[in-house]
Design goal:
This protein is an alpha+beta fold. The strands form five sheets. A ten-stranded antiparallel β-sheet has the order 3-2-6-7-10-1-11-15-17-16. Strand 6 and strand 7 form a beta hairpin. It is globular. The relative contact order is 0.16.
Length: 278
């Protein structure tokens, strides 16, 4: 499968606790409910492989694994934690997903969690519905749904005369390629800290303090779909997810227009690709 036809969902969450089975059902229920997305294997604290995998037949088989606690030693003392849970499907429409649970440090600082999902793209599946469900289930603060064709090996950009701008674009492109929306860098060129968002995906979720970065009326009046899901907004760039594959020029033009509806300098990738390699 060409990487350009692989999709990625990445959602950051600062929820206090996602270890309840009610949360587990909300996250895993949508994929177990579909025969073409149903996971076959689960692993705890490891990638799914021949040694670590646990065969599962239904979402109920995961109840005792979801949010299961383990213990490690840190500075000679035991420390309880919840290992990452990963699921995998190797049949048609191959996919891998994982949930890294939010946690508290010994100083009671919140360590954010995230949900990551990679899958073969299939135009018959309502990926936006899955993205919305997961943003709600994880109480996410930011997230992207996009195709992985926009990474450093598949796109080229016109360089700028501004070295820092080129550096930020390069670094943001690398993070955007793995689905990261919110970033902060210390630049090599000017030795200063710069924070912002990498880029818009086909669908982008803005929650938490990012809600203040969005004017829903302005975006709607510009002709874009935007949905308030209670704790944040989801905005889509074109009508069809398949536009990223079938009509990238249209998607690119729409994204450029959509970014103009946000405050200036919010996105660190401020140009569209001059070409997209196949």
């Amino acid at each position: 499968m060409n990487i350009s036809n692989k999709l990625r969902i990445l959602i950051d969450t600062e929820a206090e606790d996602l270890t309840s089975w009610a949360s587990g059902q909300s996250v895993l229920g949508p994929v177990f409910a579909r025969a073409d997305l149903k996971p076959q294997f689960i692993a705890l604290g490891d990638t799914v492989n021949a040694r670590s995998r646990i065969i599962v037949e239904s979402v109920d088989h995961v109840e005792d694994l979801w949010g299961a606690k383990d213990t490690m030693r840190m500075d000679g003392a035991p420390l309880e934690y919840v290992p990452t849970l990963e699921w995998k499907r190797t049949k048609k429409i191959r996919s891998t997903g994982s949930i890294t649970f939010p946690s508290r440090s010994r100083r009671n600082r919140l360590n954010p969690g995230f949900l990551a999902f990679d899958s073969d793209f299939d135009a018959t599946i309502d990926w936006l519905d899955l993205f919305v469900r997961w943003c709600q289930a994880t109480k996410g603060v930011s997230g992207l749904l996009h195709l992985q064709r926009e990474n450093a090996g598949y796109v080229e950009y016109e360089p700028s005369d501004d070295d820092e701008r080129n550096e930020l674009q390069r670094r943001a492109l690398s993070d955007f390629g793995i689905g990261t929306l919110r970033v902060s860098y210390r630049t090599d060129t000017t030795d200063r800290y710069v924070s912002g968002l990498t880029n818009l995906g086909w669908a982008t979720f803005l929650g938490g303090d990012l809600r203040s970065k969005i004017d829903p009326n302005r975006i709607s009046q510009a002709g874009f779909f935007i949905r308030d899901i209670g704790h944040g907004f989801i905005v889509t760039t074109t009508e069809k997810f398949s536009d990223v594959v079938d009509n990238f020029n249209h998607f690119s033009a729409q994204r450029s227009l959509l970014k103009k509806q946000f405050e200036p300098d919010l996105f660190l990738i401020d140009r569209e690709p001059k070409n997209l390699l196949s």
